[in-house]
Design brief:
The structure holds three protein chains of three kinds. Chain B is of the alpha+beta class. Chain B has twelve helices and 14 strands. Chain C is an alpha+beta fold. In chain C, helix 4 packs across helix 5. The longest helix of chain C has 17 residues. The chains are: A alpha+beta, B alpha+beta, C alpha+beta.
Chain lengths: ~775, ~290, ~160
């Protein structure tokens, strides 16, 4: 091979279309005779629908149809449970999934009640105001602790309480071990995670071709194959009659994999019923209610330590807000529970959580998917432990790192992929050392910080570690094919939302098949191009689909070599493939182009040997036995204005190990974006609900996404510990940037403002100038 | 998020616009830059039946100086204000505040008059014209009148303009010698409405004592808050750390901030004090060293 | 209520169009769904995200904060009009590709329109100026760093050409 693309900073194949405005997004689909949908959504967080009158809306000029739950007949069904609860002994799980349109009760603000379909979105919105609803308001369940108190209203009338799930997982015997510990540190932590807010909201276009009996759905989903299968089932169509296309998708970060959203169920149904294409594009206001969130957990956690700062055990009891329904099972709280253990040796662990139904929008994974919550708890506990024991913050972490000879390291409890939480590989101390060196930790504390403090500047440093379970199964597949024009096509079933799949999959295939990376055409997210697959989530695209592409490409390579060896009448070992040609090593001028071989593999005449498959093509699947565990350390220096409590990040360092790197340019982009979302989570983004369950800041004016002035320049470094779980040795990287930013901010701000001396501890995220001022002020008024 | 149905008319002259407004009255809104009005229409919080587009009225745009008075046409876009050397020279307070208004794309379209007539108490420019002690010219088809800036803002999104009137011109006095000004705000992100902002004008006597001080705050009340009276204890006094602290305390006591999504009442009050001190020091420095 | 249509004659990327549109139609919708220039994206429809930024008479504005009839008689440039030819990208487009300044690409058209205008006015920008100019365009994927790098590189390349 002359060029090796794998591992190189290859520029992206998909860029040109995106840069020139030629990439197709769902809202770009224009079809003749297309209608437009708008949804009447509940204004109440909790209420009983007594009557709905849509007659005026139906009569409005330009309105084609208005449907409520009763119009759906037996098509009205609660959605499927995406992820069943893991096999954990004693688990309680109450499945209550969302419905297409609220029938008797509404359970959160924004829950759809009626769909209006009109000649334009403008008219459809006009008609929403025509619909009369008689709603009996019910007390809203908002506060997690009150939700569990006796006498609370219940979100689901058929349940006696608001408990959605109850799970306990243990390792060792915490109680016994803690009794002998040198000290125990116990705190309450609140971690609130906002919403993913991709720049493109969700959208669905559905077209029914009655003559062909063919339904085509363009959907901003991260999981087109499951949407196809589900729709076929609901609509009593053959899967072959349903084509779901996730074209270019403008960011997702988790919530776009949720299914079935009511709109995904209703648009195809309406398109068939009306025999006209129908488009629905979520507007930004709807997005705040109609797309899933992540939200708060309350942890009562304690850590038991030996006198030299070694973790004896951790106990954590937490509440998890699952929102009005729980279609995504327990992925988020299980991630919190598992990821809390971090890169540390925790011999004894006792973790109990209760997932709680509330009258708030549904909670499903958003980048990090609950991992942040767990990392915040353990990292903060270690900070407080270091203070208690008089240890340096970096040192207490170092002492507890899992040693490199302990891998695979089994944490015994069950992870979100139902497999035991086992870390496949890792070498944690060099990552910590590198981060400390890059941030200049020792020097900052010894000289820089005192110097700046003497000038009256409030600067602080922080360091936080994490692991991330990535690349989980079940599987993905890929079809790789050499075409007669010499180009290679790669098709997979996952969706893509900007991660560079068109490039990284091309790199993998190009290396195996020996073509220019620009001559590999990747298709993702079109169920007519690839039938099977799960989706893009859990930092798994590159790991799972990437390995499938690699496996299929390897088979194609063998087919190429076999056919070329027959052509040249030589041994396969004498051949090399490069630049789209197969040639005989050491014999210049003896070559055959791949396109020609592809034609020979699909002959027009003559006979082929028995057992021969046509074409230079292969479809292969890859499913890892369990997830690959990436890890990293973030470090930061921050300056805080003690009067306004505004802060500025002076330096930000990420050292990360995600195994073998496919494309460092794309990896850097993933980390940068993750950190930016982590910063949003730590200091800017908060969904503010009142006691009635109303979201008070449902606009991008009030829900603060970080801008180019709020995200600092980041310095990245990597170490490489390949994963033994897949042949390429890769681990996922999509979520890593976002995970440890909360504890990093809390620690750095405490350090900058010298809060320890004032007995102020930051045990909650998100923080804000206002909240910091309250916390500092509270401490002052106490003292 | 699409506007409700409306009737749109592009006025071809000021008289045309005023005639239309006289005809439609409260049903109609003028469409200037639209950078505040159209978002509220997209949320359907505003549903004007009639929009009178005044973007073609180029006579209403422009900046001119006449002795010690600066005249700014109501349709002057922020873009023009930002790039105007005359304004930077004559009214550094306004120039200092302009970059805090949203983002370049908004400032390319947004107009000073449209902003003032929208009367958002969190907005920067209302505080600026109040601090500068400006006055505003209102026209109707039948008449014309001047309104002092401090009387123009009546409540949140409410002005002293009558239904048939248009704000056509802003007149601002240039600062006298030995003056210094400062605009500052604390906003979560650049371009956001501030948690609190301050516009401060200070003039020193020959002996270096304060001879006049004007303060207006944005985000601190239902209108731009004129805190000049609260600061008036400084007049005739020398300026030092203690005097500055007194002014800050006095302003803090005088205001009753409403609280907003990013800052509680109490935090707003705290920030107002911080800003008074910082802006007063900066203005003092500027007045002293020109 | 009045839903009369207005004649709109508008020049977009050098091409003149005549269309009718309802008074209330947002300029962003008009460009995307009437002129079928779908490269201009819509992210928030309240003027915050910047995805819909176009050049209106040469200056970047939010297309979601204007009504279609307001474009009558004016000139607009959209992302489709940025590249000098089908085989050649604008230096900023090229730099965004070279520096990996885009991921999902949804915010990219707005960023290109904002920053090409910025570069025309600021041929020698520093990073702080670039970040400030970029702050009215939200990007959820990149963390901005590669975009900033791309703008700085494009500035350099554009100076070399001159």
């Amino acid at each position: 091979m002359t060029t090796r693309y794998f591992g190189a900073p290859i520029k992206r194949n998909e860029d040109k279309r995106l840069l020139t405005g030629q990439a197709l997004f769902v809202d770009d689909v224009e079809l003749p005779g297309m209608l437009h949908a708008a949804f009447l959504r509940s204004q109440n967080a909790h209420g009983r629908i007594k009557s709905i009158d849509v007659s005026t809306a139906r009569a409005r000029k330009g309105v084609v149809a208005v449907y409520t739950a009763t119009d759906l007949g037996y098509y009205w069904q609660p959605g499927p449970l995406l992820v069943p609860p893991p096999p954990i002994a004693g688990i309680v799980f109450n499945q209550r999934t969302q419905v297409p349109l609220a029938k008797d009760k509404v359970r959160h603000v924004g829950e759809p009640i009626a769909i209006v379909i009109a000649e334009s979105r403008y008219i459809a919105e006009d008609a929403l105001a025509d619909i009369m609803i008689d709603m009996e308001p019910l007390p809203a369940v908002v506060d997690l602790e009150k939700a569990l108190a006796a006498g609370s209203a219940t979100v689901h009338d058929d349940l006696r309480s608001n408990v959605a799930a109850h799970v306990r997982q243990t390792k060792g015997n915490y109680a016994q071990a803690a009794a002998k510990a040198h000290c125990i540190i116990k705190r309450r932590f609140l971690y609130d995670h906002g919403m993913s807010s991709p720049m493109e909201t969700r959208g669905v276009v559905a077209q029914w071709d009655a003559r062909a009996g063919q339904l085509t759905v363009w959907d901003t989903t991260q999981a087109p194959v499951f949407v196809r299968n589900g729709l076929a089932g609901m609509l009593s169509l053959s899967e072959r009659q349903v084509r779901v296309i996730a074209p270019f998708v403008g960011g997702g970060f988790g919530p776009k994999i949720m299914m079935f959203y009511p709109e995904e169920v209703l648009l195809p149904w309406a398109a068939i019923k009306l025999n006209r294409p129908v488009k629905w594009i979520e507007d930004r206001l709807e997005h705040f209610f109609a797309t899933t969130h992540e939200r708060s957990q309350i942890h009562d956690a304690e850590i038991a330590l030996s006198s030299d700062g070694r973790i004896v055990g951790v106990k954590d009891v937490f509440l998890h807000d699952t929102g009005a329904y729980d279609p995504y099972g327990l992925t988020v709280p299980i991630n919190s529970q598992c990821t809390l253990l971090g890169p540390y040796v925790v011999p004894h662990y006792d973790s109990i959580f209760t997932a709680v139904f509330t009258n708030l929008p549904i909670v499903t994974p958003y980048r990090g998917a609950g991992r942040q919550h767990g990392v915040f708890v353990i990292e903060r506990l270690l900070d407080f432990a270091a203070r208690e024991l008089g240890l340096d913050r970096a040192e207490i972490r170092r002492r507890n790192l899992i040693p490199p000879d302990a891998f695979p390291y089994n944490n015994e409890i069950i992870y979100q992929d139902f497999a035991p939480l086992s870390y496949d590989s890792g070498n944690y101390e060099p990552v910590l050392d590198k981060a400390l060196a890059l941030i200049g930790y020792k020097d900052f504390i010894a000289s820089e910080q005192p110097k700046l403090r003497a000038q009256g500047r409030h600067v602080g440093v922080a360091i936080a570690c994490y692991v991330e379970g990535t690349g989980i199964g079940p599987y993905e597949g890929a079809k790789v094919q050499v075409q007669a024009n010499g180009k290679v096509s790669v098709a997979t079933g996952i969706g893509t939302q900007g991660q560079g799949h068109f490039t990284v999959f091309a790199q993998i295939a190009a290396d195996q098949v020996g073509v220019d990376v620009r001559n590999v055409d990747v298709v993702t997210g079109d169920t007519d191009q690839f039938y099977w697959g799960a989706g893009t989530f859990a930092s798994r695209g590159a790991v799972v689909a990437g390995n499938a592409v690699n496996e299929a490409s390897k088979v194609v390579r063998q087919k190429i070599l076999k056919l070329a060896a027959e052509h040249f009448e030589c041994a396969e070992d004498d051949l090399e493939i490069a630049n789209g040609e197969v040639s005989i090593v050491g014999v210049p001028g003896q070559f055959i182009r791949l396109g020609e071989l592809a034609m020979r593999a699909n002959p027009m005449r003559g006979a082929v040997k028995p057992g021969t498959e046509p074409g230079l093509e292969s479809t292969q699947y890859f499913g890892p036995p369990s997830g690959a565990t990436a890890n990293g350390v973030h470090a930061m220096i921050v300056e805080v204005d003690p009067d306004t409590l505004m802060l500025q990040v002076l330096k930000y360092v990420v050292v990360h190990d995600c195994g073998t790197v496919i494309n460092p340019l794309i990896l850097a982009g993933q980390i940068h974006g993750g950190v930016a979302q982590g910063i949003g989570n730590a200091f800017y983004e908060k969904l503010v609900f009142d006691d009635e369950g109303q979201l008070l800041n449902a606009s991008l004016t009030d829900y603060l996404l970080p801008t180019s002035l709020d995200v600092p320049r980041m310095e990245l470094a990597h170490t490489v510990t390949p994963s033994p779980l897949n042949p390429m040795g890769i681990k996922g990287a999509g979520e890593a940037g976002a995970i440890p930013v909360g504890p990093l901010f809390a620690q750095a701000i405490e350090d900058a403002l010298g809060l320890a001396a004032q007995n102020v501890e930051l045990c909650e995220i998100p923080l804000s100038p206002n909240r910091l001022w309250e916390l500092v002020g509270k401490a002052h008024s106490k003292s | 998020m699409k506007p409700a149905p409306l009737k749109y008319m592009a006025a071809t002259s000021l008289d045309h616009a005023l005639r239309l407004k006289a005809d439609y009255g409260g049903e109609a809104s003028f469409l200037a830059g639209g950078q505040s009005l159209i978002p509220t229409m997209n949320f359907r919080l505003a549903q004007p039946a009639v929009l009178i587009d005044i973007n073609q009225l180029s006579d209403l745009a422009g900046i001119a100086r006449d002795g010690q008075t600066i005249h700014i046409g109501a349709m002057t876009r922020y873009r023009a204000l930002e790039r105007d050397p005359l304004l930077a020279d004559a009214l550094p307070l306004m120039t200092e505040a302009l970059p805090h208004i949203a983002h370049p794309q908004i400032r390319n379209r947004g107009t000073l008059g449209g902003n003032l007539a929208h009367a958002d108490p969190a907005s920067e420019m209302p505080a600026i014209v109040v601090a500068l002690g400006g006055r505003l010219r209102a026209r109707s088809a039948a008449a014309e009148r001047w309104i002092e800036a401090r009387d123009f803002f009546v409540g949140p999104l409410t002005t002293a303009l009558h239904d048939d009137e248009m704000l056509v011109e802003i007149e601002l006095p240039a600062p006298v010698p030995r003056s210094g000004s400062c605009f500052m705000e604390v906003a979560r992100r650049r371009g956001d409405f501030a948690m609190v902002g301050i516009a401060l004008m200070l003039t020193l006597g020959k002996n270096g004592d304060c001879s006049s001080i004007r303060i207006a705050l944005c985000g601190a009340g239902e209108t731009p808050v004129d805190a000049s009276d609260a600061a008036s204890g400084l007049i005739g006094q020398p300026i030092d750390g203690e005097a500055i602290g007194d002014v800050a305390a006095s302003v803090q006591q005088s205001i009753d901030p409403p609280g907003n999504m990013q800052a509680s009442k109490e935090f707003q009050r705290h920030l107002a004090g911080v800003l008074v001190k910082r802006a007063l020091r900066a203005a003092w420095e500027r007045a002293t060293h020109g | 209520m009045d839903s009369e249509k207005h004649d709109i004659v508008v020049t977009v990327n050098g091409m003149r169009y005549l269309r009718q549109a309802e008074a209330r139609m947002l300029l962003s919708d008009f460009i995307r769904h009437e002129l079928l220039l779908a490269g201009t994206h819509v992210g928030c429809e309240h003027g915050v995200c910047g995805a819909c930024t176009i050049l209106f008479d040469g200056h970047p504005v939010r297309a979601c904060l204007m009504l279609a009839p307001q474009a009558n008689g004016h000139e607009i440039t959209t992302v489709e009009g940025l590249a000098p030819s089908p085989d050649q990208l604008h230096p900023l487009q090229q730099a965004m590709h070279d520096k990996h300044g885009l991921q999902c690409g949804y915010c990219t058209p707005g960023i290109l329109m904002t920053m090409t205008a910025f570069l025309a006015e600021h041929p020698v920008p520093d990073e702080a100026q670039v970040r400030e100019a970029l702050s009215g365009n939200l990007c959820r994927c990149t963390g901005y760093q590669h975009i900033v790098d791309a703008v700085l590189e494009a500035a350099e390349k554009m100076r070399d050409v001159k």
